[in-house]
Amino acid sequence: MTLKRLICGFFIPLFFASSVFASQNFDERLAQLDKLLQTDLPQAEMVFTELAPSVSQFTRPQLATYHTLSSIKHLYLSELEQAHHSLDIALSFEPSEELLTRIYLYKVTIYLMQRNYEAAFSMLEMNLSRIESYQDNRLKVASYVRLLNILLDLNAYDEMRDTANLVLDINQGQDTKNECYAKLYLAVATLKLTQYPLANDLFKDSQIYCAANEQPLIANMSIKGQAQSYFELGQLVQARPMFETALAGYETFRFQLEINEVKAYLSKIYFYQKDYDRAAEYAQELSKLNDDKVNQFAKKQANEVLAMLASKDGDYAKAYQYQLIAHTLDLQYLDDKTNKQNAYQMARFNNAETKRENKSLQQERMLMMQQKDLMLKEKSSSMMFSTLLFGVCIGLVLLLLTAWLQRNQFRRQAQRDGLTGIYNRQTGLDLAEDELVQVLTNKSHFSVMILDLDFFKSINDRFGHATGDWTIKKVAHVIQDIIRPTDIFCRMGGEEFVLYLPNTELSAALILAESIRSEIDNINTKYSGHNFSITISIGLSTLEEGDLSLDPLLSRADIALYESKRQGRNKALIYQPSFA
């Protein structure tokens, strides 16, 4: 019996000691894995393989961490469903408060990539309420850094810049990894706000800091950011080697989304620098990507390059087909961007409205308590109570009126193009379809013209996007001054517009088109800060027997527009069957 006790007394502590040692070792390996996911994805995958046989020995917190890190790997590889599944498993192991924040914000990122805005905003609002209650600045910084990625995907660049500055103020360099992210996102927000020289300086700062603090992936993103700044400034000689360096870095991580985007930029640069074989190689590769929305940008750029290559070779039919694909992808991107912005603004509005409603409920509760007190008082106080009730009612009416006006304002914004203020594509199409029904009922005329600025890309490349925006707004203003109030004028996207002309014969439409073309040709560009010419090509079509929707009119007008471009641009042409 004594011997048995001696054996147990020796081996039981040894067993617990070995278990504690194993648990600590797993914590160290998971911490190493977290770091490798930011620096060396192939090495991280090797660690995943090594850890797989030991997963059954993990504690619950370790399992939560392991499955969260697994989701990050799937995100890098664009495996969204697997990433979401890994996060759900991580949640089942009751993660720590810090890890729970990471999981929620990764879920928001996945929802946004899947365009499930309702779920994304619901989870984002829930997590933001948690962040505000944190006393630990370290957790706040980590949460706000992940929020930055979400704001980027929502195109909320002003909020993104403010949040990045907030992180830098709170962090003060204490957490070098989050300092790197904040510096990068500040530079990205500045780039998206078209402040290109300043963005370039901020990207250089983040590259130096992050490289010095062993964050190679973020440093590589900063190199890509500098390349984008040079590209937007038209400095392709400086942009090309930086994009090539960034591409090599992303290939190390197998970060496919970024690899595709960098190849899209390089394909255009190679074309402009007359390296046509390499331009075609990347463009053809990207054009074969699947139709996931995350590939829209790369596929659009690729088809534009393929269109330019076909045009260079004199194959205008093929160039037109590639341009049609690029145009369709651009419209899809713009629709998605508009949907995101509208959803974001509506979510912010609903959040503010909920807070106002809560405030109103609190006011009503206070009012009920005051009413009970007043009922116990002398009748002489009834006048004061009535006055108070009236004031509260007036306040509630004003509050509801403000909410109603704000909702109407958002509805109007959703119908308008953000740059020019004219109708956006979908709103214009809806209004025109309604007019077409009336025209068909009355057996009247209906004409359509599609207008496209000539060589607009060269204006952007030579003078910058600010001048390009000035050009688009100026052209829209000139056209608005010419057309009738009953005409429906909208922006299709980029430099392309459409004008729907209810109750208008083709001859009258052609006269109007020539007037528009002439006025635009005479625009004085000195007020933009540069001297250049603006011309526009126009394709026209009219309602024919058998047309029951706008689709055939738009298709014929588009063919006429393409023929106008082919004949040298700065022309207004009516659709002819021989054009097709």
UniProtKB/TrEMBL annotation:
Membrane-spanning ranges: 383-405
Keyword Iron: no
GO molecular function, one term: diguanylate cyclase activity
Gene3D superfamilies to which the protein is assigned, alphabetical: 3.30.70.270, Tetratricopeptide repeat domain (1.25.40.10)
A Pfam family the protein falls into: GGDEF
Span of domain GGDEF: 444-577
PANTHER family in the record: DIGUANYLATE CYCLASE DGCM-RELATED, REGULATORY COMPONENTS OF SENSORY TRANSDUCTION SYSTEM
Signal peptide range in chain numbering: 1-22
Database matches in InterPro entries: Diguanylate_Cyclase, GGDEF_dom, Nucleotide_cyclase, Rev_trsase/Diguanyl_cyclase, TPR-like_helical_dom_sf
EC number: 2.7.7.65
Reaction it catalyzes: 2 GTP = 3',3'-c-di-GMP + 2 diphosphate
UniProt KW keywords: Coiled coil, Membrane, Nucleotidyltransferase, Signal, Transferase, Transmembrane, Transmembrane helix
Recorded coiled-coil stretches: 344-371
Protein name per the record: diguanylate cyclase
Classification via SUPFAM superfamilies: Nucleotide cyclase, TPR-like
Organism in which the protein naturally occurs: Shewanella subflava
